[in-house]
Amino acid sequence: MGMAYGFVEMKGVTAAVDALDIMCKSAEVKLLTWERRWGGQLVTIIIGGEVAAVEEAVKSACTYALRKPAMHGIIANPHEEIVRLVKESASRFHSGRRKMDEEKNR
Hints:
There is one protein chain. The chain has helices at 13-26, 51-64, 80-104; strands at 3-11, 30-37, 42-50, 71-76. A hairpin with a 4-residue loop joins strand 2 and strand 3. The termini are far apart. It is built from three helices and four strands. It has a four-stranded antiparallel sheet. Helix 1 crosses helix 2 (51-64). It is an alpha+beta fold.
Protein backbone atom coordinates (compact mmCIF):
# COMPACT_ATOMS: atom_id res chain seq x y z
CA MET A 1 0.00 0.00 0.00
CA GLY A 2 1.12 3.61 -0.57
CA MET A 3 2.55 6.12 1.83
CA ALA A 4 0.64 9.21 2.94
CA TYR A 5 1.03 12.37 4.99
CA GLY A 6 -1.67 13.60 7.32
CA PHE A 7 -1.90 17.23 8.41
CA VAL A 8 -3.89 18.45 11.39
CA GLU A 9 -3.79 22.12 12.34
CA MET A 10 -4.96 22.94 15.85
CA LYS A 11 -5.35 26.08 17.91
CA GLY A 12 -3.14 25.63 20.98
CA VAL A 13 -0.28 23.33 21.90
CA THR A 14 -2.32 21.31 24.41
CA ALA A 15 -5.03 20.56 21.86
CA ALA A 16 -2.36 19.63 19.29
CA VAL A 17 -0.63 17.22 21.67
CA ASP A 18 -4.00 15.66 22.50
CA ALA A 19 -4.76 15.23 18.78
CA LEU A 20 -1.34 13.67 18.19
CA ASP A 21 -1.90 11.21 21.05
CA ILE A 22 -5.26 10.22 19.59
CA MET A 23 -3.77 9.76 16.11
CA CYS A 24 -0.87 7.61 17.31
CA LYS A 25 -3.17 5.43 19.43
CA SER A 26 -5.81 4.96 16.74
CA ALA A 27 -3.58 3.85 13.86
CA GLU A 28 -0.04 2.84 12.94
CA VAL A 29 1.30 6.33 12.17
CA LYS A 30 4.36 8.31 13.23
CA LEU A 31 4.91 11.96 14.02
CA LEU A 32 7.15 13.34 11.28
CA THR A 33 7.28 16.95 12.43
CA TRP A 34 5.24 19.81 13.77
CA GLU A 35 5.21 23.53 13.11
CA ARG A 36 4.25 26.15 15.68
CA ARG A 37 3.13 29.61 14.61
CA TRP A 38 2.18 32.71 16.55
CA GLY A 39 3.86 31.53 19.74
CA GLY A 40 2.19 28.13 19.67
CA GLN A 41 -1.31 29.48 19.11
CA LEU A 42 -1.50 27.55 15.85
CA VAL A 43 0.17 24.13 15.61
CA THR A 44 0.38 21.95 12.51
CA ILE A 45 1.08 18.27 13.15
CA ILE A 46 2.36 16.17 10.26
CA ILE A 47 2.10 12.39 10.54
CA GLY A 48 3.10 9.66 8.12
CA GLY A 49 2.15 6.08 7.41
CA GLU A 50 0.17 3.94 5.03
CA VAL A 51 -2.80 5.66 3.42
CA ALA A 52 -5.51 3.80 5.35
CA ALA A 53 -3.74 4.34 8.68
CA VAL A 54 -3.27 8.06 8.05
CA GLU A 55 -6.91 8.42 7.02
CA GLU A 56 -8.04 6.67 10.22
CA ALA A 57 -5.71 8.74 12.40
CA VAL A 58 -6.83 12.09 10.98
CA LYS A 59 -10.49 11.06 11.20
CA SER A 60 -10.01 10.08 14.86
CA ALA A 61 -8.33 13.39 15.69
CA CYS A 62 -11.16 15.32 14.03
CA THR A 63 -13.74 13.34 15.99
CA TYR A 64 -12.20 13.00 19.45
CA ALA A 65 -9.65 15.78 20.01
CA LEU A 66 -10.17 18.44 22.68
CA ARG A 67 -10.83 20.96 19.94
CA LYS A 68 -11.94 20.62 16.37
CA PRO A 69 -9.00 21.14 14.00
CA ALA A 70 -8.75 24.51 12.27
CA MET A 71 -7.80 22.54 9.14
CA HIS A 72 -6.88 18.99 8.24
CA GLY A 73 -5.87 17.10 5.14
CA ILE A 74 -4.30 13.96 3.73
CA ILE A 75 -1.88 13.64 0.85
CA ALA A 76 -1.65 10.11 -0.51
CA ASN A 77 1.53 9.29 -2.40
CA PRO A 78 2.96 12.81 -2.00
CA HIS A 79 5.00 14.43 -4.75
CA GLU A 80 8.77 14.50 -4.19
CA GLU A 81 8.65 18.26 -3.51
CA ILE A 82 6.16 17.72 -0.68
CA VAL A 83 8.41 14.97 0.71
CA ARG A 84 11.35 17.39 0.56
CA LEU A 85 9.42 20.09 2.42
CA VAL A 86 8.36 17.70 5.17
CA LYS A 87 11.92 16.38 5.55
CA GLU A 88 13.23 19.94 5.74
CA SER A 89 10.72 20.76 8.48
CA ALA A 90 11.58 17.53 10.31
CA SER A 91 15.30 18.32 10.24
CA ARG A 92 14.61 21.72 11.88
CA PHE A 93 12.39 19.98 14.43
CA HIS A 94 15.07 17.40 15.31
CA SER A 95 17.93 19.93 15.41
CA GLY A 96 15.90 22.00 17.88
CA ARG A 97 15.39 18.95 20.07
CA ARG A 98 19.13 18.19 20.00
CA LYS A 99 19.93 21.74 21.10
CA MET A 100 17.48 21.45 24.00
CA ASP A 101 19.01 18.11 25.05
CA GLU A 102 22.54 19.56 24.91
CA GLU A 103 21.52 22.54 27.05
CA LYS A 104 19.77 20.26 29.54
CA ASN A 105 22.91 18.10 29.91
CA ARG A 106 25.19 21.04 30.68
